[in-house]
């Protein structure tokens, strides 16, 4: 096994000269580096940390975070969080369980004590954190990793929640995987037949390709997506196939093909067939979008549709708090809320305790949400594009 070279500062952290929390963090980073045969660490400019919702980390995760904070753990770089399990401002009005809320707030307090910004979102790039091409980061949420690597050209592996926290505390991560140019190469070409017209269809494409990729990195031909479509595409591939990087000809900043890549074709007919398969019910208890978190453009589209026909059942639009603030300033939030919608910050339907709140069937337009809701929240699905689910 090759040696992992550390700088003087990294050595000081490893032997405990910069505190016990950083020592424990560096021990984890060194172990990861050795497992993946990294030659050294690389400085990262930001960390995005998963393991935030009480639903997913439970009491054991909460105690770990409290412990690291009590040891004096303080981050060295700008660091922020994945969605929590509830809207931290509206949880009472929305009916989140009291005990759940109590534990969730303790989790956020522990992160805050370590100097981590509690902006709980899976789309940090919509909330002022937008790394540039070639910039090394340590992000952990699967759709955020996909977007950062693919659409922005930044460099990150999919960190686990603990390893992202360690990177935040130490300011470095092992130099392996997608931090290295030679690994950012597609080995499967996806030819898409038929015109894809909306985010939902791109999510369905992502579900199909994620299953086909089987650990390979895809490169797409025949599509011309906007940013929100790319967001849905990458999120779905990450959910169905753990795909952390993809290329789109003429769209993404990188286009790197390996030698003799496999080639497949996905047709519009296959996409439509999957859409029908995901529909399990005719009516929903809850309509929810924003998985990944909604952009300002999506909010404007929602506002226009609701102005034509208000929604009558609970309708959550999940988003980052920064985007919500901007929507309030522009008057978009008022237009949505006057017509039955609710802007829900800090959380998303996947990590919220929907089953404890009385919901059994949820309508979504997201391939990622459709992947996780049946297992994580015990939900039946109504699936379709925005105008097909709003009044289900």
What's the helix-strand series? HHEEHEHHEEHHEEHEHEEHEHEHHEEHEH
The end-to-end distance, rounded to whole angstroms, is: 58 Å
CATH architecture of the largest domain: 2-Layer Sandwich
Mean pLDDT: 96
Beta-strand percent range: 15-25%
Which class of the largest domain in CATH terms?
Alpha Beta
Shape: globular
Number of DSSP-assigned strands: 15
What integer value in Å does the Rg equal?
21 Å
Number of helices: 15
Number of domains: 3
CATH topology group of the largest domain: Aconitase, domain 3
In percent, how helical is the residue content? 40-55%
Largest sheet: 5 strands, parallel
The side-by-side strand order for the widest beta sheet comes to 13-12-11-14-15
Question: What is the assigned CATH homologous superfamily of the largest domain?
Answer: Aconitase, domain 3
Q: Which structural class should the secondary elements be placed in?
A: alpha/beta
Low-confidence stretches: none
């Amino acid at each position: 096994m090759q040696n992992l070279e550390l700088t003087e500062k990294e050595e000081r952290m490893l032997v405990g000269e910069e505190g016990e929390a950083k020592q424990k963090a560096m021990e984890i980073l060194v172990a990861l580096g050795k497992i993946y045969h990294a030659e050294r660490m690389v400085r990262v400019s930001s960390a995005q940390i998963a393991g935030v919702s009480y639903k997913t980390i439970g009491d054991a995760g909460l105690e770990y975070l409290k412990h690291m904070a009590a040891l004096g753990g303080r981050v060295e770089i700008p660091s922020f969080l994945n969605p929590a399990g509830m809207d931290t401002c509206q949880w009472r009005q929305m009916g989140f369980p009291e005990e759940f809320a109590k534990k969730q707030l303790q989790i956020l307090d522990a992160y805050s004590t370590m100097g981590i910004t509690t902006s709980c979102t899976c789309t940090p790039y919509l909330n002022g954190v937008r790394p540039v091409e070639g910039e090394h980061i340590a992000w952990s949420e699967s759709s955020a990793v996909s977007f950062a690597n693919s659409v922005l050209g930044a460099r990150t592996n999919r960190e686990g929640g603990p390893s992202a926290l360690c990177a935040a505390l130490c300011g470095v991560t092992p130099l392996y995987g997608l931090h290295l140019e030679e690994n950012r190469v597609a080995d499967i070409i996806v030819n898409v037949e038929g015109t894809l017209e909306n985010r939902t269809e791109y999510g369905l494409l992502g579900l199909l390709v994620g299953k086909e990729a089987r650990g390979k990195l895809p490169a797409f031909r025949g599509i011309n997506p906007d940013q929100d479509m790319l967001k849905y595409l990458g999120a779905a591939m990450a959910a169905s196939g753990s795909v952390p990087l993809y290329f789109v000809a003429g769209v993404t900043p990188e286009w790197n093909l390996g030698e003799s890549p496999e080639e497949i074709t996905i047709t519009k007919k296959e996409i439509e067939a999957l859409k029908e398969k995901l529909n399990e019910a005719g009516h929903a208890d809850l309509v929810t979008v924003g998985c990944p978190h909604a952009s300002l453009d999506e909010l404007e589209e929602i506002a226009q549709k609701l102005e034509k026909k208000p929604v009558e059942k609970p309708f959550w639009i999940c988003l980052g708090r920064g985007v919500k603030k901007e929507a309030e300033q522009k008057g978009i939030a008022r237009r949505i809320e006057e017509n039955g919608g609710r802007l829900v910050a800090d959380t998303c339907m996947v990590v919220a305790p929907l089953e404890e709140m009385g919901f059994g069937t949820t309508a979504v337009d997201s391939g990622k949400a459709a992947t996780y809701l049946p297992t994580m929240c015990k939900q039946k699905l109504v699936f379709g594009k925005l105008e097909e689910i709003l009044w289900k």
